[in-house]
Amino acid sequence: MDNYIPYQESYPNLENALREGAKIHIFRSGGGLRVVNVEKEKNPVSYGEYPYLSGALAHAESDFGLSYEEQYLSENAKHTHHKTGDYVLLHDILDLYVYKQGANAFDIIYSKKWKKIICIRPSQRPALPNHENIIWGAGLTLLDAIAECFVNDNSSDLNIEDKELFISRCSIQL
């Protein structure tokens, strides 16, 4: 756990990108890395990968405009290139969720109508019809929207009752 990067209270670059029409897809790669992919009109805006989700978010937040090579592969790369993810941190329920969900963890968009960030993720009840198989949450910040998404899911096996509990169990350093 020497390489653990704590969550941030907010992610202003990611949140601004959302307000400008970008979409964020968060997932676990085949090698187990947690990935944050930010695109606008199918063009890359930012990207982050790390053994834990908090680090992937930090890389995506700080590396706007950098190519994958500049971030991870070049001789003067900004970050160490991790080839695989790490074991899940049991105290970090958000990382645990992404680890368990794999490629279908969640998507994040911005609603101009509601002026809020929206997190969308699949329900853990696969027997439901498609339109009922989505859980969503809204908030003014990225983590607020994600927390609300978990609070709104009564099918979750994570037993999240409120945002404060969710945030504390994500080990967010506020």
Folded structure, characterized:
With 174 residues, the chain is an alpha+beta fold. It has one domain (12-169). Helices cover 29% and strands 23% of the residues. The protein has six helices and six strands; from the N terminus they run αβββαααβββαα. It has helices at residues 12-19, 53-62, 68-73, 93-101, 142-151, 163-169, and strands spanning 23-28, 34-40, 43-50, 106-111, 116-122, 134-139. The chain has a six-stranded antiparallel beta sheet with strand order 3-2-1-4-5-6. A hairpin with a 4-residue loop joins strand 4 and strand 5. The radius of gyration is 15 Å and the shape is globular. It starts with 11 loop residues before the first helix and ends in a 5-residue tail after the last helix.
